[in-house]
Write a structure and sequence with these properties.
Layout (H helix, E strand, L loop, with lengths): L10 E2 L6 E2 L3 E3 L7 H13 L4 E3 L14 H12 L2 H4 L2 E6 L11 H15 L4 E6 L8 H13 L3 E7 L3 H10 L4 E5 L14 H8 L2 E4 L14 H17 L3 H10 L6 E4 L4 H7 L9 H12 L5
Helix pairs in contact: 1-2, 1-10, 2-4, 4-5, 5-6, 8-9, 8-11
This protein binds NADP nicotinamide-adenine-dinucleotide phosphate.
Length: 301
């Protein structure tokens, strides 16, 4: 049985960009006081996680709260100036409630500025288009992003929830490399393995950042027959290597050759800390494919 490789200690984010840890930490679910948020940020950094992912819409509950998660992180960063140097900061924009999406140049440029203001930083290392605006021409989106790079507001550009064709179109018009893509990937969400997105990431040198790597928590408490089958396949490796199922799930993603960075979504310090164990879990092809087959619900051809 051939073992799959363990991840390197850090992974490049674009040809000229910073390196990031093989796990990220996400702030979709971040809330609470500045002290509580600061403790989570510190826990992620102390656990070796350097990529921190947020978005302007995090905190939005349908009527208010747009920008709340960025603003909370901004308070944390302003209170402890040393933290900023320890992280690769990523945010996203381009969703504009009550509209679905808006990536017109006027709005997108103002959204970048607003994110920086709330985060209380002059620059983020990675700015991602959260979901594609199908009414925005990719050349217009590219121009806005290039201007933000030229102004020193963003270090690099990524996409999220783009089809492979949408990613190719934006990359075509950008004069700088696109450095990341952020689809939903988990042992319960396996589309990317076969729809060309990860192959494209490898070809274009995009770092795949996996959102909801535990299926939004469903893997920890599987309810459907399919979810339970996937959980059981993960448990085989978890038991064998003395880790939890959720750690096995992160490591299953990490074992893919595209260099997937799972974005840990837990807002509990002990679970963020535990996630780091994923870097030591070894997968065999046999066990890796067993999880995939459980997720497919049928054998591979
Ligand atoms: P997830 O890891 O799939 O789910 C995290 C949820 O599972 C939390 O509510 C967590 O609760 C719960 N959970 C239950 N048992 C757990 C265990 N044993 N270990 C860890 N978590 C457990 O990730 P996610 O929060 O859905 O998404 C992660 C990140 O992806 C977000 O923060 C965001 O940065 C990004 N994201 C991006 C998009 C996009 O469109 N680009 C969409 C969604 C998310 P506790 O907090 O109580 O541990």
């Amino acid at each position: 049985m051939s073992d799959l490789s363990l991840p390197p200690a850090s992974l490049p984010l674009g040809p000229d960009g910073p390196s990031v840890s093989p796990l990220g930490w996400g702030m979709w679910r971040l809330s609470g006081t500045r002290t509580e948020a600061a403790a989570l940020v510190a826990e992620a950094l102390d656990s070796g996680i350097t990529l921190l992912d947020t978005a302007d819409i995090y905190g939005f509950d349908g009527s208010s709260g747009f920008g709340a998660a960025e603003a909370l992180l901004g308070e944390v960063l302003a209170a402890d100036l040393g933290l900023r140097r320890r992280m690769v900061l990523a945010t996203k924009g381009g969703i504009r409630p009550p509209l679905p999406y808006d990536q017109s140049s006027g709005y997108l440029a103002s959204a970048i500025d607003a994110s920086l203001r709330r985060l209380r930083v002059e620059r983020v290392e990675l700015y991602q288009i959260h979901r594609p605006d199908i009414l925005a021409h990719p050349a217009e989106v590219a121009r806005t992003l290039e201007e933000a790079i030229a102004a020193g507001k963003i270090g690099a550009v990524g996409v999220s929830n783009y089809t492979a064709a949408q990613t190719a179109a934006l990359a075509h018009f950008l004069s700088c490399p696109l450095v990341s893509t952020q689809p939903e990937i988990s042992p319960l969400r396996i589309d990317c393995f076969e729809n060309g997105e990860l192959d494209q990431a490898i070809t274009l040198g995009l770092r795949p950042l996996a959102w909801s790597p535990l299926g939004g928590g469903r893997l920890a408490d599987p309810q459907s027959q399919r979810d339970r089958a996937v959980a059981e396949a993960l448990d085989v490796v978890a038991l064998d290597q003395g880790v939890s199922r959720t750690v096995a799930a992160y490591s299953w993603l990490i074992a893919h050759p595209a260099g997937i960075v799972p974005i840990v979504g837990s807002q509990r310090p002990e679970r963020i800390r535990e996630a780091a164990q994923a870097l030591t879990v070894r997968w065999t092809r046999e066990h890796w494919y067993a999880v995939l087959v459980a997720a497919r619900g049928e054998r591979l051809p």
